[in-house]
Amino acid sequence: MVSLDKTDIRILSYMQENARITHAELAKAVNLSTTPCYNRVKALEEKGLIKQQVTLLEAEKLGLTLNVFIHVTLEKQVEEALKCFEDAIDDR
């Protein structure tokens, strides 16, 4: 587990809330100047704490109003059966 100070935690919190926040805005929010804030973000990325930045879409406005949850159970969980299943669902 990686040790984080309060500033690192605040940076991650702001970035999780708004991945498009600029380094200048982020620096101001966490009470740092831009360069040290940028360096902290880079260090957090290098430590693997920031996996990726994503865009969340407004599903309803896109007409995506249905959520589906699927539970699949295979008769056998051997490598050959798993590969067969993966190939079948990849064949769209």
Q: Would you tell me the structural class of the helices and strands?
A: mainly alpha
Low-confidence stretches: none
Give the biggest sheet. Answer: none
Mean pLDDT: 91
Radius of gyration: 21 Å
Tally of contiguous helical segments: 4
Along the chain, the helix and strand elements come as HHHH
Number of beta-strand segments? 0
Portion in strands: under 5%
Oligomer state equals single chain
Explained architecture:
With 92 residues, the chain is mainly α. 48% of the residues lie in helices and 0% in strands. The chain is built from four helices and no strands. The protein has helices spanning 6-17, 23-29, 34-46, 79-90. α2 crosses α3 (34-46). The longest helix is centred in the middle third of the chain and has 13 residues, at 34-46. It is elongated. It starts with 5 loop residues before the first helix and ends with a helix.
Features:
single chain; 92 residues; 0% strand; elongated; mainly alpha
Task: Set down the secondary structure blueprint.
Layout: H1 6-17, H2 23-29, H3 34-46, H4 79-90
Helix pairs in contact: 2-3
Short summary of the structure?
This protein is mainly α. It contains 4 helices and no strands. Helix 2 packs across helix 3 (34-46).
